[in-house]
Amino acid sequence: MAPGLEPRDDGASPPRSVLFMCGMNAIRSPMAEVLAKALLPPGTYIASAGVKTGERDPFVDVVLDELGLTAGRHEPHTLDQLEDDYFDMIVTLAPEAHHTALELTRSMAVDVEYWPTADPTATRGTRDQILAAYRDVRDHLETLIRHRLLGQSPRKMP
Known about the structure:
This protein is about 35% helix and about 15% strand. By secondary structure, the protein is of the alpha/beta class. It is built from four helices and four strands, in the order E-H-E-H-E-H-E-H. The longest helix is centred in the C-terminal third of the chain and has 23 residues, at about 125-150. Keywords: Arsenical resistance. This is Low molecular weight phosphatase family protein. InterPro entries: Ptyr_pPase, Ptyr_pPase_sf.
């Protein structure tokens, strides 16, 4: 069976549309978007946005490429720039994104989950040390997507 298409342990279906939000849509949320598109069933609508606009981070491309994935032509954007604004689930990856999502969804029937995720730009050191921090974020997000959105228990994760 293809990765990401295994039945959930709890019998529930993955959400049909997911928005990943972080501070600037430059690292965590676009990384989660690419990973989710690779793991979730075909037909799942997945997007990402930031509270404010940032600049594309080349380290994201490096760590995604290690898995054979790409962010393509992704350019950081805000919620206001999204084509669609209805989602079954909003996953926030930074405190400011979580507060914004809760405020925006106060009168909407949408699940908002906070997945605290480190900001790898805070890491100082050699290029290898910085890349290790980005890999940690990538691997953390992949684990959460598999567990929270696909319902896979840790024993099923590669």
